Amino acid sequence: CAAPSLVRMLDEAGLPPSEEASRLLHNVRGADDALAALLASPRADARRFAARLLLGRDPARWWPAVLPLLKDSDSAVRRTVIAAVGDVRLRAAAPHVLAALRDPDVVEAALPAAMALLLADAAPEVVRQLKADSRTAIAAARALRIRDAIPELARIAMVTPEDADFACGTMGRIGDPSVV
């Protein structure tokens, strides 16, 4: 089969995985197994590429194979995995998305993934991130309509002028009658 040879050639040549390669492999028989082999590649870009494609193809099937990448030494690999599970709304990954909210190198990918999964369990972590004045956390509180975030949003509105309008608008969207 051509897929393993093609994937191996991409990896060995050090070519950055691309959207063209993704489209090429989309309908090639045997591509999934060849991509799975890339999960162990020494090249971080190859691991990211394989994880994204495999989770996009059949998330439930490939999640167990991709899961170890959440401990990858390369934070870009961890971010890609978290973003991909959010993109495909893989509920089995929910506990890992919550854990990723505590990884400072991955939190920017984990917050949108948590929103995509609509994790009510993420609310305490989003509020915790608000204490760090994270604009992404404000967006997460807004999207998830986390009422527990209102006191932190009010604090941000009072002490961070550049985020005041966004924080107040978020409180209004959540449903705080004091800002309506």
How is the topology of this model organized?
Elements: H1 2-12, H2 19-26, H3 31-38, H4 44-57, H5 59-66, H6 75-87, H7 94-100, H8 107-117, H9 123-130, H10 135-144, H11 150-159, H12 161-174
The end-to-end distance, rounded to whole angstroms, is 63 Å
The helix content, as a percent range, equals 55-70%
Q: In total, how many beta strands?
A: 0
Residue-averaged pLDDT, rounded?
Answer: 81
Largest sheet: none
The Rg value, from CA coordinates, equals 19 Å
- Class of secondary structure makeup: mainly alpha
Discrete helix count? 12
Strand residue percentage = under 5%
Bulk shape: elongated
Poorly predicted runs of 5 or more residues: none
Helices and strands, in N-to-C order?
Answer: HHHHHHHHHHHH
Concise synopsis of the structure shown:
The protein is an all-alpha fold.
How would you describe the overall organization of this protein?
By secondary structure, the chain is an all-alpha fold. Helix content is 68%, strand content 0%. It has twelve helices and no strands. The N and C termini lie far apart (63 Å).
